[in-house]
Amino acid sequence: MVAITLPDGSKRDFEGAVTGLQVAESISKSLAKAVVLAKVDGEDWDLNRPITTDATVSLVKKDDEEALDLLRHDGAHVLAQAVQELFPGTQITFGPSTDDGFYYDFHREEPFSTDDFAAIEKQMRKIVERNDEIVREVWSREDVHKYFTENGETFKAEWVLELPEDQDITMYRQGDQWVDLCRGPHLPSTGRLGTSFKLMKLAGAYWRGDANNPQLQRIYGTVWRNDKELKAYLTRLEEAEKRDHRKIGREMGLFHIQEEAVGAIFWHPKGWKLYSTLEDYMRKRITVADYVEVRTPQLVDRKLWEMSGHWDKFHEHMFIAEVDEVDSAAAEDSKRMLALKPMNCPGHVQIFRQGIRSYKDLPMRMAEFGACHRYEPRGALHGIMRVRAFTQDDGHIFCTEDQIVSETKVFIDLLKSVYKDLGFTEIAVKFSDRPEKRAGTDEIWDKSEAALKEATEAAGLSYTLNPGEGAFYGPKLEFVLRDAIGRDWQCGTLQADFVLPERLDAAYVGEDGEKHRPVMLHRAILGSFERFIGILIEQYAGKFPVWLAPTQAVVATITSVADDYAEEVTNALKAAGVRVECDLRNEKINFKVRDHSVKKVPLILVVGAREAEEKTVAIRRLGGKAQEVMSLDAAIELLKSEAALPSGE
Q: Which is catalytic among the residues 81, 217, 392, 495?
């Protein structure tokens, strides 16, 4: 007898071993058709895998969000089977699910082409239509190695030999012929995948990610629960391509990147104006929020990074400079190893440690627009979104344990207000707990995780767990923004740190006259200016709100008779603090309007002979057809208010 407990607390007894599919059938036929996965005591479980002991079982339906990862994993397997059926002799390696689809890496002498995609997709649909049963089998390592060797799968045969000799290996059989190695779980049959999939692109890869190994061909695809979701995704991709920050940045003349400075950005005048406006806005907000702004060195001796723990955990991502220093007294050469700072936290602790700090000084909110450098693999670089040289809107709050809750709430209120000013209203929160590679004792981690959770709940935020993704020195909150076309971006963070103050000997004198360790809250709102500007470019498709636009207005003449008046208007707007340009070209006004619209200028002030005589302007807004005529004084006041930095209210 096997007793199955369902999520609602009800129980069902079965004579012997039972599968998740049989549990679903015992509830209703419609449920049995809809389910794709079982969860047995919280563990993902194939629907047709026997459950042999009493257990709590929940069922995942295809229309559940949780089903997407399973569908995408199966999409990779169906792709691999289709490729091998169409192109005999192709070797399979591995193919995981991704955030929006899957990929699979193949080894084949003849290169694939995107022209092959139609035939591969057709074969994938045939496999789905066959509704081949997917069966989990457990093999010995010896049998797995023999199977792959006999079938010419040299890559998987090599990989299997690295597993322990006594380890049983799960193999999944699709239909009668095709078998692949996988931890699973999988759908009960290929038919449940459906046909809401599409192959997307080709790329190169290397076996095990090592350029010294054979090159592989990677095919990417996407899978969704239904055709409506697939269509929405493809539409979103089309819109994302139009909004690509690299394309818009080039069109607007904001920045460029070149080979001589890999992973670093050359900001052009308009791009730097956008950057500095965002920095001015953030400086205004942190000043009102009682942060003290500091600046710490770029090059710091290895010793400090060893003391902080970053050297052990992070040194492979640091840019290192080794220098010869001559001690004039000893007249001997000595080597000194310095690192470009990858983060600002140890430097901020050094400032905190200068002089004697009292509990009355806390909380101390310290901020820095700190330039950092991190070695990112070349293949991971992406426009200004993923770079090696960047500036963080960094901050550290030194506080007592009793102040964690209140400081977290204050920070979250500030973060939400900033995001609202920048056009983001949908925010999700992830709670990331202790990673496998970390500093500090379990006792300290227990304390810091409990404190941050309490603070988050006190701030009225709901969150989802992100297990094992905390920083090496403490748990963190990750703030995820949803942009105008539905994409999610992880930007802001808040991390509770009991470790670094201990390692770097930060202390304050408490009310009892004794020394105490402060808690260090690491926080960022934008994350990095470079990445966030890339997000802003794509959020607005370059059509920034007036206050943020590099060029806020252009005064354009209809006729040369109005040239003097146009310059008068331009100078008056400049005096009012508006970023304005004057267009006196001998071109038709419609050409000028189109030209500046392409350049995403939010406001065009049209002036001709009548406007010059009446001291008025005709204002056209980007994307609008109508124009509003008003006096020059009224226009100056209007533009002055729209061009000003938001107050954050």
A: 392
